[in-house]
């Protein structure tokens, strides 16, 4: 058989409760910063497609928001729906869990997994945090009882441990067929999308617990010029008080958010970036389904 006949290509969904390291895993696999990460849970709102082509396999990743427990606002309902649609449209699922810490939230995600047919690989992340490695084997045996996993693999997304093995393992579950994307294409999301993601990441990192989840970033202008890319972005918040927090004393906070986002975006797109940031108050936007649609959180 020739190489072409051996090619495999398919979709992989990454699911798991918030904060287990799903975004970190995807970034580590792709070796490039395209999904955002932060230590605050629930940072991933968009479905992000990342593509990894290695040897004869092309792995197309769909990152999903964590499956959230309380459907308190429209936003959470949207996120729950996204996670469920991810489950239904993939060839393989990674169910990411954290070390030897099994929680009720993991059990809830597993109950959703049980409703679908794709093979599920149990990805035990953050093994670097397990001080006593002897605990790993009995834990894996315990996990085996929970579900007929397609396979189980311990990894560290942060340290990059065992990721090659994970990629090889995954390829086995993908259908035979031609690649869907060019070999060197890493993501199908454009620079515009990346700009919003980077700004949102900086908001999360620099404002910590001060920042409510009801914050969004809209890119109003994204233009290429011979000298670089011009980006105008608006940060939407619910209340005046939140606007003041984001702007900070003498505008220092927003300046730093803009500078750091600009540096990251410039590295990712390999172009100089000129970025302008504003903060606007838009009352109750997180509960407004039409606003969510206009901001791109809902598919038409
Ligand atoms: N020690 C250790 N920390 C990790 C590892 N992977 C991720 N983390 C950390 O765990 C935290 C959460 O990681 P994320 O990748 O944002 O988690 P997530 O599952 O995508 O979270 P949501 O977007 O909220 O669903 C971050 O602080 C990461 O640095 C790992 O392998 N080892």
From TrEMBL:
GO molecular function, one term: ribosomal small subunit binding
Domain Era-type G residue range list: 8-176
InterPro entries: G_ERA_dom, GTP-bd, GTPase_Era-like, KH_dom-like_a/b, KH_dom_type_2, KH_sf_prok-type, P-loop_NTPase, Small_GTP-bd
Assembly notes: Monomer.
Spans annotated as G5: 155-157
Entry protein name: GTPase Era
CDD domains the record matches: Era (cd04163), KH-II_Era (cd22534)
Transmembrane segments: none
GO cellular component assignments: cytosol; plasma membrane
Ranges for region G1: 16-23
Keywords: Cell membrane, Cytoplasm, GTP-binding, Membrane, Nucleotide-binding, Ribosome biogenesis, RNA-binding, rRNA-binding
Chain intervals for the UniProt region annotation (G2): 42-46
Matching Gene3D superfamilies: 3.30.300.20, P-loop containing nucleotide triphosphate hydrolases
Function noted in UniProt: An essential GTPase that binds both GDP and GTP, with rapid nucleotide exchange. Plays a role in 16S rRNA processing and 30S ribosomal subunit biogenesis and possibly also in cell cycle regulation and energy metabolism.
Binding site for GTP: 16-23, 125-128
Bilayer topology annotation: Peripheral membrane protein
Gene Ontology terms describing biological process: ribosomal small subunit assembly
Chief location bin: cytoplasm
Region (G4): 125-128
Superkingdom of origin: Bacteria
Region G3, residue ranges: 63-66
Subcellular localization, as worded in the UniProt entry: Cytoplasm; Cell membrane
Domain KH type-2 residue range list: 199-283
Family membership: Belongs to the TRAFAC class TrmE-Era-EngA-EngB-Septin-like GTPase superfamily. Era GTPase family.
């Amino acid at each position: 058989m020739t190489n072409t006949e051996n090619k495999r290509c398919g979709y992989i969904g990454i699911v798991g409760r918030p904060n287990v390291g799903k975004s970190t895993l995807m970034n580590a696999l792709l070796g490039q910063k395209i999904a955002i990460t932060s230590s605050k849970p629930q940072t991933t709102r968009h479905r992000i497609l990342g593509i990894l082509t290695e040897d004869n396999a092309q792995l197309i990743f769909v990152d999903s928001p964590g499956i959230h427990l309380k459907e308190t606002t429209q936003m959470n309902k949207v996120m729950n729906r996204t996670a469920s649609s991810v489950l239904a449209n993939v060839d393989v699922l990674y169910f990411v869990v954290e070390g030897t810490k099994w929680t009720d939230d993991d059990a809830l995600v597993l109950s959703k997994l049980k409703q679908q047919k794709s093979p599920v690989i149990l990805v035990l992340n953050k093994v670097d945090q397990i001080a006593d490695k002897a605990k790993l084997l009995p834990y894996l045996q315990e996990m085996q009882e929970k579900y007929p996993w397609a396979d189980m693999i311990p990894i560290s997304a942060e340290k990059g441990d065992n990721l090659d093995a994970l990629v090889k393992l995954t390829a086995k579950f993908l259908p035979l067929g031609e690649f869907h994307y060019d070999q060197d294409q890493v993501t199908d999301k454009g620079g515009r999308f990346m700009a919003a993601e980077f700004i949102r990441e900086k908001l999360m990192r620099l404002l910590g617990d001060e920042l409510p989840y009801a914050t969004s970033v809209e890119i109003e202008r994204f233009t290429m010029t011979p000298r670089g890319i011009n980006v105008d972005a608006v940060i939407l918040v619910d209340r005046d008080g939140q606007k003041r927090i984001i702007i900070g004393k003498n505008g220092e906070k927003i300046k730093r958010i803009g500078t750091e986002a600009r540096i990251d975006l410039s590295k990712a797109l390999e172009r100089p970036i000129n970025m302008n940031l504003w903060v606007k108050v838009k009352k109750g936007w997180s509960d407004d389904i039409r606003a969510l649609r206009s901001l791109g959180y809902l598919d038409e």
